[in-house]
């Protein structure tokens, strides 16, 4: 099908595009010349992890209220400030923008911690839901599963648990625990040796659970559930000191 060229129609479309472009350019120029009247910082924190507050965001911007108010928006880079806010490990997402009334608005979403890394020879850290390694905070402590042991320095060398295959498997194990109601309530600590073999320490009971490497998760958790459902009710919660799940088709107890 041939389309008939209509010069008048094409000129109208071109004129409309030019008008829209002029309006956008005028709006941007006007917005840039507006002085900042107020600063609104909104932190999205649905999980109640209060690692940062409004004053921390202001400090990340390296600007104080007194200097920002009354300053023209076009005197600094919104994108540059937004990028700096996003680099903070506790922050998952951030948007910084201004409106025509001269208000500067910051919206930030915090990461959710799913495990705490504990060590004797240095500062602790957190593992976020997306695998990001975060520092601890003086403002807030999150009640999550603990990660300890000789393998901890290896974890802390990374920015994210998904950066290599071994820690990615450990992250998968952490997700498996927190997604299951019983395991989330029962498993308090994962101690990882220098060969990445894992031992669980439970909330209830004195036994050490030797899980081995973060592999064959479904098979090992199935054996562990058999232990809790069928063996412990008959023998008693404090009968065993050691449970080993590493060997195929076996539950070794001592």
Descriptive account of the structure:
The strands form two sheets. The protein has a nine-stranded mixed β-sheet. A three-stranded mixed β-sheet has the order 1-3-2. Strand 9 (198-202) and strand 10 form a beta hairpin. The chain has helices at 7-33, 54-61, 65-68, 78-86, 152-156, 165-179, 181-186, 217-235, and strands spanning 38-44, 91-98, 103-110, 113-117, 125-128, 133-135, 145-148, 187-192, 198-202, 208-212, 242-244, 252-253. Helix content is 37%, strand content 24%. It is built from eight helices and twelve strands. It is elongated and about 85 Å long. The chain has two domains: 35-110, Ubiquitin-like (UB roll); 113-253, Rossmann fold (3-Layer(aba) Sandwich). By secondary structure, the protein is α/β, with parallel strands linked by helices.
What is this structure, in a nutshell?
The protein has 254 residues and is an alpha/beta fold.
Taking strands numbered 1, 2, ... along the chain, how are they ordered across the largest sheet?
6-5-4-7-8-9-10-11-12
Q: Tell how many strands the DSSP assignment holds.
A: 12
* Rounded Rg: 27 Å
Q: Give the class from helix and strand content and strand pairing.
A: alpha/beta
Number of domains: 2
Q: In CATH terms, what is the architecture of the largest domain? A: 3-Layer(aba) Sandwich
CATH C-level category of the largest domain: Alpha Beta
Order of helices and strands: HEHHHEEEEEEHHHEEEHEE
Tell me the helix content: 25-40%
- Characterize the overall form: elongated
Q: Main sheet, how many strands, which sense, barrel?
A: 9 strands, mixed
Work out the strand percent.
15-25%
């Amino acid at each position: 099908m041939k389309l008939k060229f209509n010069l008048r129609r094409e000129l109208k479309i071109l004129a409309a595009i030019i008008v829209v472009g002029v309006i956008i350019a005028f709006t941007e120029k006007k917005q840039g010349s507006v002085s900042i009247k107020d600063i609104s910082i909104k932190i999205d924190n649905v999980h109640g992890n209060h690692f940062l507050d409004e004053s921390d965001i202001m400090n990340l911007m390296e600007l104080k209220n007194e200097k920002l108010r009354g300053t023209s928006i076009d005197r600094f880079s919104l994108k540059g400030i937004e990028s700096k806010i996003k680099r903070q490990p506790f922050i998952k997402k951030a948007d910084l923008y201004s409106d025509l009334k001269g208000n500067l608005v910051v919206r930030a979403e915090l990461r959710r911690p799913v495990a705490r890394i504990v060590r004797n020879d240095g500062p602790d850290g957190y593992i976020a839901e997306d695998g990001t390694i975060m520092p601890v905070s003086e403002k807030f402590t999150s009640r999550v599963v603990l990660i300890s042991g000789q393998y901890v320095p290896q974890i802390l060398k990374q920015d994210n648990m998904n950066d290599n295959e071994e820690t990615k498997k450990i992250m998968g194990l952490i997700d498996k625990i927190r997604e299951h109601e019983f395991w989330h309530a029962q498993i308090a600590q994962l101690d990882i040796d220098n060969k990445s073999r894992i031992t669980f320490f439970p909330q209830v009971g004195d036994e050490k659970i030797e899980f081995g490497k973060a592999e064959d998760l479904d098979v090992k958790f199935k054996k562990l559930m058999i232990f809790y459902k069928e063996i412990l009710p008959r023998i008693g919660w404090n009968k065993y000191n050691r449970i080993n799940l590493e060997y195929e088709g076996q539950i070794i107890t001592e």
